[in-house]
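Researcher: Here's the sequence for the chain we discussed earlier.
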Amino acid sequence: MTELMSTRITVKKIAEICGISQPVVSAVLNRGKSASNIRFSQETADRVMAVAQENGYRPNRVAQNFHSQKHQSIGVLIHEAGNIAPDAFRNLLRVSSSEKQLICFESIQPDQKELPLFLRKDCVDGVLLFEQLDPQIHEAIQKIKLPAVSINARPTSQMHHVVFDEVDAIKQAVALFDRGGCDRYILTRTFANPQHYSTHERVSTLRWLAHERGLPDPHIVDMDLVLTGTPEQKMAVLDELLELLRKPGKVGLIDTGKFTTLSLIQTIHQSGRNVPTDLMHLYLGNDPTNDYSWPSITRLTVDMPRVIKESVHDLQRLINGQKPVGPPMISYQLFEGQSTKL
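Model: Thanks. This is the structure I predict for it:
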């Protein structure tokens, strides 16, 4: 048994303990992972592995990846964590693990003047971009030729983009409202980025479909202050919503907010409306908290495991100098619950 090391064990130290050369130790430790012409006996291999395990040896990724000139890690650029659905986080971790990739997250602050670390330092092989980012970031990525895949953002450059079909999602929602005889629409949302394509496409499509049917202009209710405002500000927003709900006519309600569904349901109950008899409630997005509502809420969601898996695989293809093959447009899937079933 060797004496435990007080500092990190290295290939050099293992070689000294075993009385062999460093190349032989490296060949043993990397057996099956990289080609080597160095020969060694099974006894030598057993001795090296015993010393390495006893002293907690961990291979250095930089050294391992030196010849390939790759980091075996990908970066994820976001404005804030709330811009990525929880199931996207889970699937990013799952897919990166299966691909034996490290995954690094970097958040970009609204007033940040310098470029993200991923772009200033050579520390990742490629990046995934979530939501709408500053054009200078796209320009910097193109300039340094860093492989990138943009998820859920309007295409603004030559990089590979994966966008969600917001127009079709609203059409699916309105088709349900037509079936239920709704004669006016309300759309609730949180932290709507005016520069994001979904903000425009959801509202403009809903307005177009309402006008096409001869219905009044949809009401758009921003629920941000329900999450971030004072108690008075929160009540002001919910009172506005309550007043809209109490107006005559059957309502088709599209909820696109994050973490506001409970407040929304309480306001619906307060209005005295019955779901789905005189109000049809549909959630558009990937907030998992809605899975536990009762009555069950009809949902339009994207297949996030598929989005993440194909985006990571396409990023890997770009890193390896190949063309991406994933679909550029992802449709929403409809899961009908009790909130729209008559």
